[in-house]
Amino acid sequence: MSRWLEALWEPSAGLFSLPGGLDMLDISGDGDARLICADLGPVGSDSTKIRVYKGGDQITEHNMIEPPCGVVGFYTENGEHRSSVVAVGAGASVYIFKNMRPFFKYCLPHIDAHPKEREIWHKCGLDEELNVLTLADDLELLLKELGATFLSPRTLKFLSLDNNLRLSFAEQYRRIPLVKANALTAITIIRRDSWNDPASSCLILGTEAGEVLVLDPRAFSVMDKYILEWPPAIFASCGLWTGDGYIIIIGRDGKIGTIRRGSSVKLWETLPAPAVAIAVLTSQGAAVAVMDGTLVGFSKTGIKLWHINIPGIILDLVSLPVPQNGLSLLAVSTVGYGIRIYDGKHHVDTVKIMEPVSALKYGRMGQEERTIAMVTVGGGLCMKILKRTADFNTNNSISNLSSSNTSKFSIPKKTRLFIDQTIRERAEAKKIHNTFQQGFLRLRLTTAKQASEHLSENQALGSNPITLETNVLGLGPNYMIRIIITNISEDLSSTELYILCRAEDTDVNPRVIDLPLLPSAVPIPLAINANLKGQISGKVKILLCKKSNPKPLVITTVILPAAEEDFEI
Amino acid sequence: MGLFDRLANLLGLRKKEVNVLVVGLNNSGKSTVINNFKREDDRCIDIVPTVGFNVEKFAYKFFNLSIGVLDNILFMSIDTGITHFPSLPFPSLTRICTASDKLRLVVVKEELDMLLQHPDVAGRKIPILFLANKMDLPDSLTTVKLVAGLGLERIQNKPWHIRATNALTGEGLQPAIEWLTDQIRDIYINKR
């Protein structure tokens, strides 16, 4: 039985979204969360829109000039449902909507152009007469020297123009100060100082120039600024920004690192391929979907905990926190394999869907807390609701058991015993350490002893596989003990072997027999005479020994039965 | 029991105690519906989300209705509601669904199926009254659509009735509760 209820499937919604292009927010503060969707338009078209859905119906749409890089919804005040705003990052600006009406536009600070380039344009602006040819030559030289990436769009536009158009272009712009526009690459939010819902969140912006800006939620002024020197592509945030929260940053080349407030970026590692998406887990770690088809789990300190291969191409990844069950699941959208749900590295469920899903979002939709919204590559919109009774534990109980040695044990920390133990440890640390060291040394000694004994025994027995077979012949009291010795190994036996007889209440002759070299698999018979001394039965121990080794290799005991009374004839 | 009591009982004058369980998703208007049955001066002005379980008692025609409001999303199980009425028979059930929330129709259906399969409900002839609440909202579904969407025609062993209501104004509530009391009276008459 499926764990999901299909609430909505609209194959012709005409939505085209990428990871990060969906969010759910109660935009008007009436308690009903809406789906906000950055629609990039069908392939090849420029009509980008922000669409807002209530339930399954679109209620508003807003045209955008530039394609958005992400949509996030957040609150500007703590505990104030009506303070919800939607931020859409596009081009070099962040458009803020309040109640889905334009409210504020934040422009990224301009970057300074290269000094040489600025110098050329400045000089050209000072000239009375504009000399287009010198300007063109200077800029041409600069282009060769620096490369196109370091030049401003104005220079590039100028150089790409036809010769006779250059004059009017330069005339138009030469007296305006030269600036280089920045571009937004990623946008996300982080809770500011409260875990309550709703709580104000700071806006986090990543720019093409390699900066990370953290904006204050009320004034939209820059609170903190970090220089990365590589453009961030994907963000994820965890915790409170004014507390111990951090931002996980992934670059286009797969660099992954974190920023904490007041410290510079700390690189974790470089992923083997560019990342598709990142999802934060409630256990403070994060999972990253990588383009080489793997899902990698990181701890909160950046230690790679696990990685699994995902069938098909990964299109998006979101986390599904299910606090009722104490779970933090991951939903991975794949091509051809539906939405695969993972609990850590264990596959627990698959949500089948007609088309591959290009963008996923899990959260509160309308009144329903556990809704997953999916936008398919064909432009369809699908919404599913996680059943109240859904249980993800049944399937993976066995696999969980096998992995329990790697996962944390849930030991209650504050038991009485634990406290007593801690106090005792603190008071008598030296003694405990000494006792431990003593015990440890003893353990090592015993282990070493056992090991050496085992080794020498193995040497003795392993190299001398010899069988000993004994028979008692005769009626008594004079018996003959027949011993058959066979060397069952393939090599010759070692020399210096002898047989020793130890007897109680019996005369044995001979007591010692030196053995010849035993050829392989040839039974060698020996005979020993044994006479009982009294009327009771006797016991003879036969030991196979080696002259250099005090320990016998093989021991057998022969019991001589009590002899019959002599008959008087 | 005195002679007079017995006489009153025989004549059906004495009011019977009847338990009614009200079930619905959160924010569907259960407490608001019950607020409407109260006397004017008892009504609450602000209705806050019910956490857990509420029992209200009031008289209506022949019966003392004790109505329990249960939010099954909050409470995770209707078992609690049923155990709160130990004095079974538990003859009636009111199910409230929001007519305006199309997205949650599947959730309502799922919860309803689970309720109908509950051992205390499944085999018994309990009248069920469905209130399609919030009919005043512009995008609300009609009762016909709700019957189809929830698959109510499959309920064959229980009398049921659906009514579009508006708990804020009390529209549609009177005929709905009259149907419920008629059903309960029928049960008592048949028993006798």
From TrEMBL, chain A:
<dbReference type="Pfam" id="PF23304">
    <property type="entry name" value="GAE_BBS1"/>
</dbReference>
<protein>
    <submittedName>
        <fullName>Bardet-Biedl syndrome 1 protein</fullName>
    </submittedName>
</protein>
<dbReference type="GO" id="GO:0034464">
    <property type="term" value="C:BBSome"/>
</dbReference>
<dbReference type="GO" id="GO:0061512">
    <property type="term" value="P:protein localization to cilium"/>
</dbReference>
<dbReference type="GO" id="GO:0005113">
    <property type="term" value="F:patched binding"/>
</dbReference>
<dbReference type="GO" id="GO:0005119">
    <property type="term" value="F:smoothened binding"/>
</dbReference>
<dbReference type="InterPro" id="IPR056419">
    <property type="entry name" value="GAE_BBS1"/>
</dbReference>
<dbReference type="GO" id="GO:0005813">
    <property type="term" value="C:centrosome"/>
</dbReference>
<dbReference type="InterPro" id="IPR032728">
    <property type="entry name" value="BBS1_N"/>
</dbReference>
<feature type="domain" description="Bardet-Biedl syndrome 1 protein GAE">
    <location>
        <begin position="466"/>
        <end position="564"/>
    </location>
</feature>
<dbReference type="GO" id="GO:1905515">
    <property type="term" value="P:non-motile cilium assembly"/>
</dbReference>
<dbReference type="InterPro" id="IPR011047">
    <property type="entry name" value="Quinoprotein_ADH-like_sf"/>
</dbReference>
<dbReference type="GO" id="GO:0005930">
    <property type="term" value="C:axoneme"/>
</dbReference>
<feature type="domain" description="Bardet-Biedl syndrome 1 N-terminal">
    <location>
        <begin position="4"/>
        <end position="260"/>
    </location>
</feature>
<dbReference type="InterPro" id="IPR028784">
    <property type="entry name" value="BBS1"/>
</dbReference>
<dbReference type="Pfam" id="PF14779">
    <property type="entry name" value="BBS1"/>
</dbReference>
UniProtKB/TrEMBL annotation, chain B:
<dbReference type="Pfam" id="PF00025">
    <property type="entry name" value="Arf"/>
</dbReference>
<feature type="binding site">
    <location>
        <begin position="133"/>
        <end position="136"/>
    </location>
    <ligand>
        <name>GTP</name>
    </ligand>
</feature>
<keyword id="KW-0460">Magnesium</keyword>
<feature type="binding site">
    <location>
        <position position="31"/>
    </location>
    <ligand>
        <name>Mg(2+)</name>
    </ligand>
</feature>
<keyword id="KW-0547">Nucleotide-binding</keyword>
<dbReference type="InterPro" id="IPR024156">
    <property type="entry name" value="Small_GTPase_ARF"/>
</dbReference>
<dbReference type="GO" id="GO:0005525">
    <property type="term" value="F:GTP binding"/>
</dbReference>
<feature type="binding site">
    <location>
        <begin position="24"/>
        <end position="31"/>
    </location>
    <ligand>
        <name>GTP</name>
    </ligand>
</feature>
<dbReference type="GO" id="GO:0046872">
    <property type="term" value="F:metal ion binding"/>
</dbReference>
<dbReference type="InterPro" id="IPR027417">
    <property type="entry name" value="P-loop_NTPase"/>
</dbReference>
<dbReference type="GO" id="GO:0003924">
    <property type="term" value="F:GTPase activity"/>
</dbReference>
<feature type="binding site">
    <location>
        <position position="50"/>
    </location>
    <ligand>
        <name>Mg(2+)</name>
    </ligand>
</feature>
<keyword id="KW-0342">GTP-binding</keyword>
<keyword id="KW-0479">Metal-binding</keyword>
<protein>
    <submittedName>
        <fullName>ADP-ribosylation factor-like protein 6</fullName>
    </submittedName>
</protein>
<dbReference type="InterPro" id="IPR006689">
    <property type="entry name" value="Small_GTPase_ARF/SAR"/>
</dbReference>
